[in-house]
Design goal:
By secondary structure, the chain is of the alpha+beta class. It has 14 helices and 21 strands. The longest helix has 36 residues.
């Protein structure tokens, strides 16, 4: 197009022109940095103005002032960016210093005193203020006196009726028993041992309600044995309440009354050992401190405990496969301990208190009672405490010993021992067998110690025993000759057998028959007499020609073997032969022979004279006529007399 016009397009100047040189060169002002922009924005802030309108007006005035400054001095250098902020902070610091000075002067009260402005009011007379305060104090005193009088009346009424507050009684009940409030507002408690690990199905729930005034007054003078829902089910036991309570404890009918478990070891209708198991009498008596309902709950929990223990024993009696099967009939369990000896476990439960009940048994075995308690607690503990797996990926159930059986290279026998467990009934039967064996052993030892005067039998029972094994040490000594010798043996009394360890290391195992133990003790007495006689002869310079604990001549002994000893005097002119037999008591026979023989005459076959020194025939001595208190004492006198005669 011939009429076209050239138009030059230039970019707008983003930065301001700071200076134009004489040659037309323009020097632009560099763009502000971020810190300069921040300082510029901060300089616009006035800390004394907080409203939005003031801030907007300030921005407008600041923009207008900036334009004027640009128009007036277009080429003037800008001041320090933080100059405005510094000035404002300086002004604020000055004001704070002035305020601090004023406060310090006012605090010292030497140069400046600040007094509040008093409002003009009506003048009041002092006597009016005194009367008003006196009236207010008298009203407060009347309120306090009235409250104290009501409290005093409540306490006196409570003391006269002997009735405590319901909530205080409930607090005491909660301190000793588990309680909870259900949805309908009732308060129930639990007597069972479920929290301890019990799995017994019988419910132990009881209900707590507030006693009525009429019922409380009636319970003060009447016996509450016939009422199942009375306060302090001491009612259930026929006890007469001397004090009423604000609580009514309602227990189930199956938990009312008195219960205990009776354990009897019987032989041919004769009771050998008895024990009664219950929870009564254990722990401190806090009935007088907490309330009359405490006895109710204790009796109910005792019934629950006895029923749970008997149910556990009955279940085990049915499951066990004994050589002689156990019999469970009603509330009685019969188990055979030894021939003609039975263990009878009975559950006795009475819903009423009978004053004509038999007196408690004197021959009560506390060890057996404690074992029944402990074994049931152990079952509860195993139900609630299981060994943790190790490692964590291992299965639950195996014990710690089985977990380390692999690393310790346990054999098959050790693994079988780990799996063997005893039930409560098995442990009780084992303990009852041990109790019978211990009593039988004591009877045999006491009988022998009474019947056998020479030598003396001394028994030392170990005080630290287990429920299924006892240890007794027997010393056989002769009075006055303790230093010469004594015979010791140890007997381990187990469940169905005896283990005897002699001094020479021999071990003999005996059955439950008492005659075997009696025979063993008599044989030990026989051996003790011969060994002590040998020691005594050596002390008196006599020569022991021979001795034997098993004499093989003569008639057959009904018990053991006869023992013999042959002694010669120091000059060899006297000989003593001793023979001791158990038939069935200790029988001692003593014979004497002299040398040279008085009846020796030479013959063609025996012409020499020296053959007369062989000794003559043995003559029996009346041993019971010899002076002395014991066998060794008599033998000492006999050897002394024979020695003196030959001197």
């Amino acid at each position: 197009m011939s009429n076209s016009v050239n138009i030059s397009v230039e970019t707008t100047c983003e930065n301001q022109i700071r200076e134009i040189a004489y040659d037309g060169t323009e020097l632009y002002q560099p763009p502000p940095t971020l810190s300069e922009s921040l300082a510029k924005c901060a300089a616009r802030i006035d800390f004394s103005k907080t409203s939005l309108d003031d801030l907007k007006k300030e921005e407008k005035t600041a923009a207008a002032a900036e334009e004027e400054i640009k128009d007036a001095n277009p080429f003037q250098e800008s001041l320090w960016p933080w100059d405005a902020v510094r000035n404002k902070l300086k002004d604020a610091y000055t004001e704070i210093c002035v305020l601090s000075d004023v406060i310090s002067i006012a605090k010292d009260k030497r140069y400046l005193v600040l007094d509040p402005l008093l409002e003009e009011g009506d003048d009041t007379k002092p006597i009016v203020q005194v009367y008003s305060r006196k009236k207010a104090i008298s009203q407060a005193a009347q309120v306090l006196l009235g409250g104290a009088e009501r409290i005093r009346n409540a306490h006196s009424e409570q003391r006269s009726r002997n009735v405590s507050d319901f909530h205080i009684e409930l607090l005491r009940l909660r301190q000793n028993w588990r309680l909870k409030k259900v949805s309908n507002g009732a308060i129930i408690g639990d007597l069972s041992y479920r929290t301890a690990g019990s799995k017994f199905g019988m419910s132990g729930t009881f209900e707590v309600t507030k006693a009525e005034d009429a019922l409380d007054e009636e319970n003060v003078g009447n016996t509450t044995g016939a009422s199942a829902n009375s306060t302090g089910s001491g009612s259930n036991n026929g006890m007469q309440l001397k004090a009423s309570s604000a609580l009514r404890v309602i227990v189930p009918s199956e938990l009312q009354g008195v219960a205990y478990i009776k354990v009897i070891t019987q032989k041919d209708q004769e009771d050998l050992c008895t024990a009664q198991v219950n929870l009564m009498g254990h722990g401190p008596n806090i009935t007088a401190q907490v309330g009359v309902w405490q006895k109710t709950l204790e009796f109910a929990q005792n019934v629950l405990f006895c029923k749970e223990l008997f149910a556990q024993l009955a279940r085990e009696a049915i499951q066990l496969q004994a050589p002689i099967p156990h019999v469970v009939i009603g509330n009685q369990i019969r188990a055979t301990l030894l021939p003609n000896i039975q263990l009878i476990i009975s559950l006795c439960h009475s819903t009423s208190f009978d004053s004509s009940q038999p007196a408690p048994i004197n021959d009560h075995d506390h060890v057996l009672e404690h074992s029944l308690h402990q074994l049931l607690r152990e079952v509860h503990y195993k139900n609630s405490h299981h060994p943790f797996p190790h490692p964590a990926s291992a299965p639950l159930g195996p014990s710690k010993k089985r977990m380390v059986a692999g690393p310790t290279a346990a054999d098959r026998e050790a693994l079988l021992d780990m799996t063997k467990t005893q039930t409560i009934l098995e442990q009780i039967i084992a303990q009852a067998q041990h109790i019978f064996m211990r009593k039988r052993t004591q009877y045999v030892l006491d009988t022998l110690a009474r019947d056998v005067k020479d030598p003396q039998i001394v028994s030392h029972w170990n005080a630290m025993n287990s429920p299924t094994m006892s240890c007794v040490k027997i010393n056989i000594v002769t009075h006055g000759y303790d230093a010469i010798g004594r015979t010791s043996l140890v007997i381990h009394v187990k469940e169905r057998s005896l283990k005897c360890i002699c001094r020479d290391g021999r071990v003999m195992r005996l059955s439950y028959e008492p005659q075997e133990l009696r025979d063993l003790i008599l044989c030990q007495i026989n051996s003790h007499q011969i060994s002590c006689l040998v020691s005594l002869a050596r002390c008196m310079a006599w020569t022991v020609l021979s001795n034997s604990n098993h004499l093989g001549i003569g008639k057959v002994e009904p018990l053991g073997n006869a023992s013999s000893c042959l002694l010669a005097s120091p000059n060899s002119d006297r000989m003593i032969a001793v023979q001791i037999r158990c038939d069935p008591q200790i029988d001692v026979k003593v014979y004497i022979a002299r040398s040279p023989r008085q009846d020796f005459f030479p013959s063609p076959l025996v012409p020499e004279k020296f053959w007369e020194n062989l000794g003559g025939n043995f003559k029996e001595v009346r041993f019971d006529k010899i002076e002395g208190k014991s066998f060794l004492n008599k033998m000492e006198f006999l050897m002394a007399s024979l020695t003196s005669n030959t001197a």
